[in-house]
# Entry
Amino acid sequence: MNISVIGTGYVGLVTGVCLADSGNTVYCVDNDENKIKMLNKGEIPIYEPGLEEIVDKNVKNGRLFFTSGLSSAVKKTDVVFIAVGTPPMDDGEADLSNIFEVANKIASSIDRYKVVVVKSTVPVGTCIQVENIIGKKSHDFDVVSNPEFLKEGTAIEDFQRPDRIIIGINKKGTHLKAKEVMDGIYEPFVRTGAPIYFMDTNSSELSKYAANSMLAVRITFMNELANLCSLTGANVDNIRIGIGSDKRIGKSFLFPGIGYGGSCFPKDVKALYKTAKGKGYDFKLLKAADEVNSSQKEVLLSFILKHFKSNIKNKTFAVWGLSFKPKTDDIREAPSLVIISKLLSYGAKIRAYDPAAMKNTKKVFPRIEYAKDMYDALKGADALVIATEWNDFRTPDFDKMKNSLSDKSIFDGRNIYIPKKMKEMGFHYFSIGR
Ligand SMILES: NC(=O)c1ccc[n+]([C@@H]2O[C@H](COP(=O)([O-])OP(=O)(O)OC[C@H]3O[C@@H](n4cnc5c(N)ncnc54)[C@H](O)[C@@H]3O)[C@@H](O)[C@H]2O)c1
# Structure
């Protein structure tokens, strides 16, 4: 099948390359000319494990193309995926201007039957709006909702082996053209039995926000519980194990930390709250999760100020981990940014290190020091802050760390070390809820 994917970011690029890898001819489109130039030179604009190899393979076998020509890509293809960004506006509502701009361009390029697939995360009712925009032109088409559930860091694996596929189609009937097309596209990815759920577009759109919001609330619950543990002397690790073995609760997403970040959870929680508000419903739980998450990003700072008796002017903090989570270079809403900016506001100095996200962080903090590796970051530092749980940081050379850090203090926002062992080794070790 010939497919175009509009928007070549974390979702669009992964979608495009995985669809090419399963045998389709795919045109990845972006209005960022620089991104397209890089991709055409074989450079990958984002860090995502395994992405470079699979892009390279599919470009070489002639099934994957990169272009900024939206109209010609749409004309060449039968299915058009929309995977552009839907960032939050100041009031938290999702900004749909990219979606509507692309819908208008598709409307003027449509020349025969096409399936238009909205893969971006969009508020309930958006597919109907897209349908209305394209419907102004008379060609036959279907608009389908197909939210994406991949996770940065394991995006290829998630796309190729999904837990489920959700497809929203409003037309009824068993032999719908759009349904057959979508079944055909996803058939190679559900061979192991993952279900494809068909539903109406409103339910499909809302399912995506529901999934992210539930996960965000779950993390937030554990973060609040960890804060309570710190006050009561209970250990959140024990509680996590205790509740996680209850089948109704399950073990995943129970690790407390310094708040969720990234391009999805924060914006999707806010956007779902705004959707509810727009319908006259005050979704209090979402508002609370958002507020708690913002303050959770400052928990390490409160530990630091207490330990140093608020005197951190001219102290140097090494920061390990800048991305919002491991295995990505994405720093959108990363807790590290809040911590660094707070430390700077108190007159502290920063030596930062991240295996993948330093290039992006330099755009936000051009003047802090960036180290060449994790141990280099510790040179001349008083204390270490761990903001992201990259594997590289899990079993470090503790002697080397102790010799470098003048105050021998570690503020671990991701609970990657064992408190008892750290104490025995002579560190001042602070973690979340233990
Ligand atoms: N990043 C994730 O982990 C993830 C996971 C699931 C869903 N989503 C959702 O997928 C969507 C895309 O997210 P992302 O992280 O890939 O965003 P991104 O910012 O990485 O990529 C979006 C791309 O769209 C391009 N674009 C914007 N407007 C355009 C236009 N008019 N024409 C052509 N290209 C245009 C941008 O240049 C950019 O390259 C969002 O709605 C997001 O919520 C993201």
User: Anything to note?
Assistant: The first helix runs from residue 10 to 21. Residues 235 and 434 are 5 Å apart (CA to CA). The chain has a mean pLDDT of 97.
